[in-house]
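task queued by scheduler; priority normal; single chain, no ligands, no partner chains; default sampling; output format set to structure tokens
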Amino acid sequence: MDEFCRFFELDHQHRILICISCQYAIVPSQVRTHLQIYHKRISLPQRNEIISKVEATPGLARIHSDVVYPTPTDPPIASLPTYFDGLKCHGVKTRRPACSYICRTLYGMREHCRQKHGWVNQQKRGGDVRAKQVHTSNKIWTEDHTCQRFFKATSWQRYFEVARQNVPPGRSNQPRTDQREDFFRSQEDDVRRAERDAVDDANRVHGFNDHVSAVVPWLRETGIADHVHGLSKDEIRTAIAVPPLGEDDTPRVIIGAMESLLRDAYRLCFDGPDCMLTY
């Protein structure tokens, strides 16, 4: 299995590219940025291989209007999270089909209805907040719709309704509770993933461009800076570890001689800021 298939799934029916671990679709032009931010463990050659694959894949939606969205009777897409707390607008548009906008927050639905349908909230402010209904009596939306979304990118983000499946009778509120638990669990996973990435990032050599030490020219001149770039510090320690005593002593003799040679060369070249090598 190539690197592309390890991280991404192509959905030809809907013309989208789904990140398997993140569980949402990626805008093709944002794949490089997505890999750099959320998948730092992927090496540069692997990253370039994935990007080349995306660029060469025909049929992917390169603009939002080319995305093919499911209908409300289609089953949920297995690779994406399914939400059971969707709010669906039923506002009527002049000479157009009834609105079917979907979102998951009451504030978002109210703003949509105000802006698109001129809706006015008839619920008065103040009074006993606990006694009030969550949804106003003149609402033009319905609740508890099953929905999904493809993208997190702001300009491409949109929820869409899918068919509800495998929901036991009399437990209409259970999916919402399960979804909240899934949400918090995913947040904990994100935190743990970020901590692992931070540790891995700190353990990896990124280069010496911002290093203020006077030995930087020496590292560049010998090619060491390019050689260790991208390696973890553990990998470097393993590569330069001296064989233990009792085994073949030839490598130890060679390493000792090379270390002595390099130290003498460094001592002779490093004469201060006026030396050409360290200048």
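post-processing summary
- The chain has three domains: 3-65, 69-124+132-166, 216-269.
- Residues 168-177 have pLDDT under 50 and may be disordered.
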